[in-house]
Amino acid sequence: MEIIIIGIGATIVFDMWLMLLKRMGVKTMNMAFIGRWAGHLAQGRFAHESIAASPAVGGEQALGWLVHYATGIAFAAALVAVAGNGWLHAPSIGPALAVGIATVGAPLFVMQPSMGLGVASSKTPAPLKNCLRSLANHAVFGLGLYLSALIVKGIAP
């Protein structure tokens, strides 16, 4: 249960960061496109020329949010798998940041190419800027893993 709470908490921190960026005029990810990709994946289609041009799937917005939070939980489980169960009782920032930053591989090498944006945003107008933004976003997620673990540790008996 602790891993689930940490994953959800870290994803909330990530989402709050994205909301701040959006208020500053920075384009952020569209959860409907994540849901669209997941919906097509369930039908056997992994890659798209352009996810925006691919047919919509029913409930794609909700599906996108579900996939987003499930991924956050999976990444929290990966952190505990790497750092060990002892990390849950004595959270430290190093492993959380390391795993958070490592998770940037998912968008750069799986999601972006499969959605038609190319490996590491290579088919976008500003690939380096997009990669650096993804790296910063995932570092924030790592910070969220650490902060959420501290909260869980503080409320756990």
From TrEMBL:
It holds the Pfam family DUF2938. The keyword ATP-binding does not apply. The chain crosses the membrane at residues 6-21, 66-87, 93-114, 135-156. The keyword Cell division does not apply. It comes from the Bacteria. InterPro entries: DUF2938. Keywords: Membrane, Transmembrane, Transmembrane helix. This is DUF2938 family protein.
